Amino acid sequence: TLNSFAAEPTGVTNRLLLTLGSPAESICVRKPIDSVTVPGYEGVFTLTNNHSLTVSMLKPGVITVREGSNTEEYFVSDGFVFFNQAKDDSGCCTAEISAVEAVPTSALDKDRATQVLSELLSGPKDTEWDKTKIQLGSALCNAVIRAAQ
């Protein structure tokens, strides 16, 4: 993981250290934060420092990163989150989020997502692949539409 090569934040204690990335980019590596809220397949949940060990698959939705009064939101298509306890005396636990795609919600285009959804729904529905493509594509487009600001 990226955490294996990241420099330790100096002077940081008892904080949640977030690593968030996709195959295309690393958004943050071991960034000290207050909490991160993720769209797990079993439901939306929030991780803070000293949470119980967690591994969860993510569904399309919004990840919210909170640090003091600042909030950052990212749309993820899917992925995984891994939460681990501190491995040293710092008391800093780690949350690693590996997403297939992750983009700031401000970059989402609701009109384009609506157009793609319309194209999907008006396409062929003859084969099982057609039906599966419509089902999966519709779920993703609807998640983008809900998350778009």
UniProtKB/TrEMBL annotation:
Pfam families, alphabetized: ATP-synt_DE_N
Keywords: Hydrogen ion transport, Ion transport, Membrane, Mitochondrion, Mitochondrion inner membrane, Transit peptide, Transport
Molecular function in Gene Ontology: proton-transporting ATP synthase activity, rotational mechanism
Superkingdom classification of source: Eukaryota
Domain ATP synthase F1 complex delta/epsilon subunit N-terminal: 22-85
Places the protein is found: Mitochondrion inner membrane
Position of the signal peptide: none
PANTHER family from the UniProt entry: ATP SYNTHASE DELTA/EPSILON CHAIN, ATP SYNTHASE SUBUNIT DELTA, MITOCHONDRIAL
Similarity comment: family membership: Belongs to the ATPase epsilon chain family.
Record keyword Membrane present: yes
InterPro entries in the record: ATP_synth_F1_dsu/esu (IPR001469), ATP_synth_F1_dsu/esu_N (IPR020546), ATPsynth_dsu/esu_N (IPR036771)
GO cellular component assignments: mitochondrial inner membrane; proton-transporting ATP synthase complex
Protein name (Swiss-Prot/TrEMBL): ATP synthase F1 complex delta/epsilon subunit N-terminal domain-containing protein
